[in-house]
Design goal:
single chain; mainly alpha; Arc Repressor Mutant, subunit A; Tetracycline Repressor, domain 2; two-stranded antiparallel ribbon; 2 strands; 76% helix
């Protein structure tokens, strides 16, 4: 009797098992197939493809703008190397001028990063400055950026991107310079923030004038080094502060009666 009761109790479960076994789909979806049907995965794939296309267009635009200038480069010229449609440029950047400014800003940040990397191996303030200057004057990225600055005078809608780029230059330059000062124990001859801002102001001025005068990269480097001058001293700032404290203490001792320091 007990076995009959157990069988009756299990019969619904057996029925469900058999039912789902017979009606289950014959094929099982792979993980990639499931992801492909996921709207979130499709959105991520679309964003990834969009970023890649955007980067390709910026790469091609940068090269063409440097070679031919803004007026000599068409949207079709930029789209062709990236195997893109001209409409994709207007989709991602709105206008050719906006693409020009963004390409110039991106190149400027790239050259700043390369200059900071090149200067990491410097052991003296003079070598540090030279490494920065040689990296900056070896390319035309600063001159390219100067053209973007000029363009924003007529296109104020493009100014915010340039402003953000300048702030990044100053901020990252300050961080790198302050890090070198602390790492080596140098003494900055000016406020580190002012030093960073002055460096890029001089770089833009020297490069614009130099390109207009047809100067070579070596001449640009020499000119920029001459204008910048010494930016820091290898003598630690703490030493000069200690000397001032010692001098003050000595002066106080000599002025006290009996040569004793005043309390």
């Amino acid at each position: 009797m007990a076995s009959i009761a157990v069988a009756r109790a299990l019969s619904p479960l057996i029925y469900l098992f058999v039912y789902h076994t017979n009606t289950a789909p014959r094929s099982v979806q792979t993980a990639s197939e499931m992801q492909a049907g996921d709207p979130k995965h499709a959105a991520r794939a679309t964003r990834s493809a969009g970023r890649k296309m955007r980067s390709l267009l910026l790469d091609g635009a940068s090269r063409l703008f440097r070679e031919r200038g803004l007026a000599g480069t068409s949207i079709s010229d930029i789209a062709a190397p990236a195997d893109a449609f001209p409409s994709q440029i207007t989709y991602y950047f709105r206008t050719k001028e906006a693409l020009f400014v963004e390409a110039a800003c991106r190149d400027m940040l790239y050259v700043a990063r390369a200059a900071e990397q090149a200067a990491l191996t410097a052991h003296t303030p003079r070598d540090y400055t030279r490494a920065l200057v040689e990296s900056v004057t070896a390319t035309d990225s600063v001159a390219f950026f100067a053209e973007a600055l000029t363009l924003t005078r007529r296109r104020q809608d493009l100014a915010p991107l340039v402003e953000r780029t300048i702030e990044r230059l100053h901020g990252e330059g300050l961080r790198a310079y302050a890090g070198q000062i602390e790492r080596h124990g140098w003494s900055s001859l000016r406020d580190p923030d002012a030093t960073s801002r002055r460096f890029w102001a001089v770089a833009i001025g020297v490069m614009v004038e130099g390109y207009a005068m047809g100067r070579s990269p070596d001449e640009l480097c020499s000119e920029m080094l001459g204008v910048l001058g010494e930016q820091a001293s290898a003598k630690p700032a703490v030493d000069s502060a200690r000397l001032r404290l010692v001098g003050d203490a000595a002066a106080s001792a000599s002025s006290s009666p009996g040569g004793e320091t005043s309390s």
